Amino acid sequence: MTESNVNLEQPKKKRTFRIPHVYVLLIIIMLIATIASYLIPAGEYARVSDEATGRMIIDASSFQLIERTPVGLFDLALAIPEGMAAAVDIIFLVILVVASFEIVNATGAFNTGIAYLVKKLANKESIVIIGVTCLFSIIGAFLGWAEGVLVFIPLGVALSKAMGYDALLGMGMVVLGTGAGFAGGVLNIYTVGVAQSIAKLPLFSGMGFRFAAYVVFTFITIIFLLVYARKVKKNPEISPVHGVQLANLEEIDLNDIPQFTTRQKSVILVVIIGFAICVYGTMNWGWYLRQISALFIIIGIVAGFVGGFKPSEMAEHFANGAKGIIFGAITIGLARGILIVMEKGHVIDSVIHSLAELVQGMPTISAAWGMYVIQLVMNFFIPSGSGQAVTTMPIMAPLADIVGTTRQVAVLAYQYGDAFTNAFFPTSGVLLAGLAIAGGIPWDKWAKWVWKLMLLWIIFAGVFVTIAHFIKLGPF
What we know:
Blueprint: H1 3-9, H2 22-39, E1 43-44, E2 47-49, E3 56-58, E4 64-65, H3 73-86, H4 88-106, H5 109-120, H6 125-143, H7 153-162, H8 167-184, H9 189-198, H10 207-234, H11 262-284, H12 289-306, H13 311-344, H14 348-359, H15 364-381, H16 385-403, H17 407-419, H18 429-437, H19 443-470
């Protein structure tokens, strides 16, 4: 056999496109911002004090071109630690909240409580679907969990199969329920809290509007799951994963669930009281990021003592939680570095001015919709909620001042643009991890199943952005 024949018989390797790591994407954006400092005319707006609110806002008529200040290679590298320093309060909020909650998680209070609830609802299929979905939507809306719910996916899948359904429904109850709540963002510190802090809005302002939207998103999700459950029960072959070989997950015996102890119930009570204090503090005492970080440290310590941990055990769990969130914390710092580069190059105001001119003369609602669409697209590239907030809100907040909508609408557009597609885009590491944990559900099968719900979410979110714009959702 000749060498040429051997080459002909060798199978050709398929070239598959892989989305770059989020760090790579952020650094690419930093490089683009650096190049822009050489190409885009430098400019700036004057900032003036708004007497009504006491905050600094852009004077829309004050834009002027200034001498270029291009960013060099060393300044580009320097922007990374400077970005981390500038975002230090946000970074430490995320680290301290997640680390403190790891102590709560280690008590087993939430795991056992959820399993206990599932057991109580056994053999009541529709009630189980509604109850479990609502439970996880509450977790998403008030605790802001994303990665934290992954551990419950095997429970959801096992429960779904025990009721005669499939793995998709089991994962859907957990992931889509959480997604509806995470998008609703009633008290989501990681998205709404970060975005509002950058926009200089009172923390958790607009809570009533977000809660109403959250109820609608959860209702849509429940209807989607119930309709699918009814169809797949009648004809299992309509399931997108019918005939797909999935890994067999460990069966969960609802008769062998650990006792839901008084200690664990007390831990959950500590968390509920802590969140109540957080809401009251932000609304009445002027609490901001550092005060909330301190409160969560207290919640973690009190929950640890109530849960029966010794100080050293709590310290170990705290360290494990902090270790797990370092990836996200660095993402926030890198994202803030983009803003540092744009500020050094004096191009951020030029970008805001160009965007404002683009929508000038158009209905102001067009600007609100444009913000929403931009955030939807950005979420494909930056799936980190807090990272996307740090990247986009420094532009979107002042842009809102200029084009005639409110900063609260800009935050809402970010909130919805960031959240929903986390349950769809293949760049979401949390989604891919969840699919693997659910037995290896192929992403294309998941996408085929969930796209209709995703479309409904996106449309209804657009409706809420529109309503928020016309009622001038504020305070500003």
